[in-house]
Amino acid sequence: MRLSTALMQRLGTNAILEQQRHLNKTQLQLASGDRILTPADDPVAAARTLDLEEVIRKHEQYQNNINTIENRLGLEDATLDGMTNILQRIREVAVRANNEASLRPEDRQYIAQEVRQALGELLGLANTKNANGEYLFAGTKSHTQPYTADTLATDGYYRYQGDANQRLIQIGPTRRLADGDPGSNVFERVETARIDVTPEDITEGTPTTVEVQKIPVAALTPGASFELEVDGVKLSVGPMDKDPTLTELATALNAAATALPAPFTVAEGLGDDAGKLVLTWSSPGSVGDTAQLHRYDNTFTAIDQFVKALDGDLDDKSAKNLIGDSLLALDNALEKLNNARASIGARLNAVAQQRQVNERFVVEMQSALSEIRDLDYTEAIARFNLQQVGLQAAQQAFVKVQNLSLFNYIR
């Protein structure tokens, strides 16, 4: 085989370039710490690396979501804690207001002013925003103020403007948690009055009429809802959209009670303003028959009615009933807040546990990724040194071959 000078030059140059290519690759591996620089280096390992990196990114996002939930739930819990303290203060003055023996009219006015101020504080907290300008208690309508006073309602109705939905945030591959509570769960449907009809009120074997006097007309605020339970069967009416009368309430109850032998009427000859709602068993009663009528308002409307009763805006009988019912309403409002805070605590515990699960999983995935992607420095340094020797040998061989020529001997 004939070897020309050009061929030997080309072979020598190619050998040097090949050694430099290997040396440069090893140098890049040492600089980056990665064994795989391009998918061509190890296609299977490169694909596995992409999968592991995607899984790790997702779990890091879950951790960010957990931070978001913890911040929002922490703010909500602090807000509800403040509202709890205010409600407890209102309850203390409600106990004083129920002590009619020692309470003077001017004392009631002072109490009304204090409760009115506390109501303003409660409304301010109910309309709290987070750092992103979103309302805490508006549900998924986070840019809508949850509570506003209905100026069309003469009896002081505070209308909820949010919705009943919760925003669920992913904190794990198969787990989502609510980052807050809508006002409908925390402040709405607070029982503010309860009427019990016991077997002693019913004559066995004869139709029975029971006067229900504890829900006065003036207390039937817009937004109030009612629940009737007869022998374990429940029916609901409301919320009422306008200023209702007893006649309208009786009509609504009768419309919902078609399956029950207990229609309601207003006492004959007394009119709507009499404050008497008559519950009549249309079939002979038995000693086992029982009934309960519950009235529900939101927390703020209930407190506003309490203030009006203290101010003397209602007739004496209505005022006494509302002041007497105020403790029931406040206790139920506090129970609502406590239930919400218990739910928040449970969710905070859940996200703390999920955070630990995510952290352990990320560590395991990073370990697996390291085994696939990371460079073995001991092996790489040894290979780098060997490649340096190979490059130097190729360069020296090229120099010696380059000097081989018959013309060197022609002198």
Automatic annotation (TrEMBL):
GO terms for molecular function: structural molecule activity. The keyword S-adenosyl-L-methionine does not apply. GO terms for biological process: bacterial-type flagellum-dependent cell motility. Transmembrane segments: none annotated. Keywords: Bacterial flagellum, Cell projection, Cilium, Flagellum, Secreted. Residues 329-410 form the Flagellin C-terminal domain. It holds the Pfam family Flagellin_C. It is found in: Bacterial flagellum; Secreted. Residues 5-141 form the Flagellin N-terminal domain. PANTHER family: FLAGELLAR HOOK-ASSOCIATED PROTEIN 3 (PTHR42792:SF1), FLAGELLIN (PTHR42792). Belongs to the bacterial flagellin family. This is Flagellar hook-associated protein 3 FlgL. It comes from Methylomarinovum tepidoasis.
